Amino acid sequence: MQRTSTEGPDYFHKVVDCQWACPAHTPVPEYIRLIAEGRYSDAYMINWDSNVFPGILGRTCDRPCEPACRRGRVEDEPVAICRLKRVAADNKDDITARLPPPAARKNGKRVALVGAGPASLTVARDLAPLGYELVLYDGDAKAGGMIRSQIPRFRLPEEVIDEEVGYITGLGMELRLGQRIDSLKGLLAEGYDAIFVGSGAPRGRDLDLPGREEGRANIHIGIDWLSSVSFGHIGKIGRRVIVLGGGNTAMDCCRTSRRLGGEDVKVIVRSGFEEMKASSWEKEDAIHEDIPIINFRVPKAFTHEGGRLSGVLFEVVEAQYDDQGRRRLVASGAPDEHYPCDDVLVAVGQENAFPWIERDVGLTFDEWGMPVVDTVTMQSSLPNVFFGGDAAFGPKNIIWAVAHGHDAAVSIDQFCQGLDVADRPPPGTSLVSQKMGIHEWSYDNDVANDRRYRVPLRDKATALKDVRLEVELGFDRELGFREAQRCLNCDIQTVFADPLCIECDACVDICPVDCITFTDNGDEEDLRTRLKAPAPHLDQALYVSGSLPTGRVMVKDEDVCLHCGLCAERCPTGAWDMQKFMLEITHAGHACQSR
């Protein structure tokens, strides 16, 4: 293998697995260290710079960072990255003075934002300080989009939404709330320099089954029902409730039902438990609240008596797998099962609805009725119209909407300044030694052996009485510190200087996970099998030195390195150093373009 090149932003970024996995590329280890130091406001602002909604996401994020966490490779559970984000939000000081001030003067460009959800709000946050005249449209009376309408208050209090949405709207923009856009042609005719569509995936899928019409009064579309609860239009439900679907919306529906009078609430899913789309912690929360999840049941019909819904009939299925491991559900041969109920909540998926976009306006749509959108620039076939969030590629989650918003803001700024939107300004990076002495570092590199700490919950009997009473109490400062200490500081990179190495193998002897090997060179497939610990995970690189005096090379498996720094402490020549890698995502603005 050739000597590993660490030039450019990607090599060391990929080693920081949590940050690499985060769509918004939040510098996770950096803000966790700040939490451990009690610098909560600094930790909050690092989050705000990249993921925009620290307090909201600290309660609701889908946590793509946590499965990637290196701690999960040496223990059963990763660092509670998401809940530490909330620690920063809950304990920060007043940070309003640290927010960008409204632009002193406008730059003459007008941008319309359709939908006031997380994608549009991110675009607004990035463009407002640059002097753009922004007009934010939404059919609801308050900004927030699905954050406000679809996430139950017992998971996300209204005051947290108001605070973090307010930070953005306070940057200077025109809010046209309660004003739904009915025509893209009409919006284009208003002469905006650019239009961003962040209208979400507002339509829940229905089930066209026998009995649907007869039971209509008590069969509800999940996301619509959650919105009605959030806005106070619905305050009760029947005693017996069936929730159809296995995603996070289904978990929100069943838990909300328990708080609105549902005593016998069941989630019934066509897939197996492990295959459900709901996050594992969402399923755990439902089960904790005494909600059974019944799997491998496919709804066949809604039953009714006297013109009123009486239950749901299910076919019992089982999973079969072909030679390629592909699954299909087949009838098990067991008799159909009938579950009586008073209400049904249908949470079997969401889809986009663009009745307000005329098909002759110049936008290209795909076979599924979705606009064709560039996955990097977020630009549509109409050069001045951009999409993001669920409106771009279908339902995902808040953190993806934020990432789309950042990318779209860069593109809109480039477009409005007459630059090529495909010319993406690079992120800012730095790599700085953490050495403070011969064997001392400017960070705590003692690997804590603590298992993941559980987030305290409100007493179940109390929590189930109030649909607006937050269930999770969050880590206090002491628990937050202890959980932060579990972080392995993966952004502190082990950097090797070939000319200083005397091949004494001291680093090999002290490495606690056997990730360093001095060996003869070879091609990668061969080399991976000759390491002290074989390195089968091809998606993470080997760190390979140049040829050393004996002709050997140093090979480090980045996949299992704990970044403990013992190699650097033991090295007698300083060939190893611990250097902090920082990556700052690209934001709209000429400062980024000049890097």
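Next protein, fold it too.
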Amino acid sequence: MGGVKDPRDLRSHQWYGTDGLRSFSHRARTRQLGYLPEEHLGKPVVAILNTWSDINPCHVHLRERAQAVKRGVWQAGGFPLEFPVSTLSETFQKPTPMLYRNLLALETEELLRSYPVDGAVLMGGCDKTTPALLMGAASVDLPAVFVPAGPMLPGHWRDKVLGSGTDMWKYWDERRAGLIGDRELAELENGLARSPGHCMTMGTASTLTAAAEALGVTVPGASSVPAVDSGHERMAAASGRLIVDLVGRDLTLSRVMTREAYEDAVTTVLALGGSTNAVIHLIAMAGRSGVRLTLDDFDRIARTVPVLADLRPGGRYLMEDFHFAGGLPAFLGQLTDLLHLDRPTVAHPTLRAQLAGAVVHDAEVIRPRERPLAAEGGVAVLRGNLCPDGAVIKHIAADPALLRHTGPAVVFDDYRAMQRTIDDPALGITADHVLVLRGAGPKGGPGMPEYGMLPIPDHLLKRGVRDMVRISDARMSGTSYGACVLHVAPESYVGGPLALVRTGDLITLDVAGRSLRLEVPDEELARRRAAWVAPAPRYGRGYGALYTEHITQADTGCDFEFLSREGAVPDPYAG
């Protein structure tokens, strides 16, 4: 081990090293697994938490990468054990993997606590797995390293380079507008996602893995290594070696994931023009680390941080371009005056040391400070009588003409009903209208699905309209774009002001003023509130009922109340 920890001080020693019946049983059962005593006794036991699945294309290569992690652990003198944990596939899991983020966090926490584990390697990358794994591991507070799944290869169609998600939305609207047909769409199906790995735009997956690297819980540069690049396997092996060293030094997550680290993660997300989903996830992750992070922190930092990554959906390039431009170390090297450089990371004594020598190789992809993509961070936090607890908008990916807009609302109470009726000319929707969806928040969704990029009516698409103001208590994909106000809190399901909006009400969005207002007199809103009736519960039993009873609102991270509150949890007695 890289440190000087006595093997008798290892947590796993309680299971394996004492002179008692239980230790005898544990050793005997390990022989049953086929291991010799010298392969594991007195060595750090490293849990490899693997979110691989046949139905998760973002993680379909992680079964092989786990072997590289094991190789690194063995080389460094540790004893690796792979644990399969829940896979949260953004592509396939319904109604949304956000419903199950806290379930994976709970599974991670309890698995690491209940088994003879001294440290952990966390393998994930698809949107919800990164925060879930880190939330659970932070709650146990063992040494841990995160291994990002990595972005897929760039997409291709004819002479176009495609970005997964972003170009899916774009070309689907082109088809609705009658500009492309079924033949082109079939070709796009084959070219949009060409390899294992998560979305290669600066969507939620890349945003959260970059945040993990900025927090200091990966090997340097890990977050942008393409999933199918041989460098990804080398990164996985290096992570396996690193975790053994961290156990030896007893460098737990609480010493790395500090308030300073979370502020730097927020700075990173905003300077990348990253996903709005990072707001919810970082607040939840920080809560598990005992750090109070708020929407106001995001807005405060956003006003001081330029956007320097020219990445889709707000820019031109993709993650492979970013990686070969220098990756996150080079990117953060452009922001050193805004970062806490003297905090530790899992790989270096300080962030300053980790960034030393990093060089930008392409100043178009990673912009210099004097030539930013935008002067302020790409996400704005809104307040007002329609969102007293806040809402967010990724204004860097919106039509600038809509960032100060007043228009009449068209209200939809149900996403499926909206899908059926949005194209109906009888609704009289114009480009000046404000599309409002409610019933799509944490409890109402359920799980706060990515419904927030509401479709533009096809008759407007055919006239060339490509953006409208849209407001909801839902989230949207980090690969999405448009003037979409999201995460309205409190949500309509619990009686937030969004529940009181009626079709025809004027709504004013003012991003510069950080305001979202319903232009209805307070007396009228009071009358509507008095007449409001709470909706029936979505779930009568099961996990959904547990979720509904304990989930918090978007502004506080959508964690379970009983997982986010303070309180001691004892280590199990292994004897």
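About the second fold: The longest helix spans residues 230-249.
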